[in-house]
Write a structure and sequence with these properties.
Helices cover 13% and strands 31% of the residues.
């Protein structure tokens, strides 16, 4: 079995049991995942588990919608930032600058450059929790503390990714729910991305599509302003 078809452990994604869900109302992803609302978070964390769901409802006939749920332990989080027009801009990473405190050139204090868009794990969970979805996952995922959250994506967007248990990943959610718009695996020695979801398939460069990382030329523009050098995440 090719490792390119594996997710989380040494089993192919197809071998993970599918939990059937009969949704009694109309299954409306735009509303349920709150995708219409402008917002979202950028998360770094560790992959600990996964689930598969097949959703049907009384209004869609035999159609089945398949989802993968990733259980992520959050280590870093940022709020996505948007202009009034809806265009995404670079968030404030909360970097400090030195400010002189007196006549002596050696007298300094550190001062924040502005309101930081960094958030803690609890705030990230609050911003991405939808109670109806949590009820589907809360008894099926191992408890790993307050820093873990279940994030959803369509199975077709992630089935070709190579993600293994313990992998360090970065993802972006869309709207005000847990739906993944982009996800990548980060290399141990750099922040180079290997795969992402979002309609262009596995193997595309996250650096090209979403964020800027170390090793990119300094004069290279950041796309949509949401790039973060790893140092900018540090407290």
């Amino acid at each position: 079995m090719s490792r390119s078809h594996m997710l989380y452990d040494n089993k192919p994604l197809e071998s993970i049991p599918v939990t059937p869900v009969r949704w009694e109302k109309r299954w409306e992803p735009e509303k349920l995942f709150r995708l219409q609302r402008i917002g979202g978070v950028i998360i770094e964390g560790t992959l600990h588990g996964r689930l598969r769901f097949s959703v049907t409802d009384p209004f869609s006939g035999p159609q089945k919608l398949r989802y993968v749920v990733l259980h992520i332990e959050i280590s870093k989080a940022l709020k996505r930032k948007f202009e009034s027009s809806g265009k995404e801009i670079e968030p404030n990473y909360g970097m400090d600058k030195k400010v002189s405190t007196g006549y002596l050139m050696s007298s300094y204090k550190t001062s924040a450059t502005g309101d930081s868009d960094k958030i803690n794990a609890n705030e990230a969970k609050r911003m991405t929790t939808v109670a109806e979805l949590s009820r589907l996952t809360e008894n099926r995922l191992a408890e790993r503390g307050h820093a873990t959250q279940a994030f959803w994506c369509e199975e077709k967007d992630i089935e070709k990714m190579e993600l293994l248990q313990g992998d360090h990943i970065r993802l972006k959610t869309k709207g005000e729910g847990p739906f993944i718009e982009f996800i990548v695996k980060l290399d141990d020695d750099s922040a180079t991305a290997t795969n992402y979801t979002g309609g262009e398939g596995a193997g595309s460069s996250w650096t090209d599509k979403v964020m800027s990382f170390k090793g990119q030329p300094q004069d290279a523009p950041q796309e949509e302003g949401d790039g973060a050098d790893d140092d900018e995440w540090d407290d």
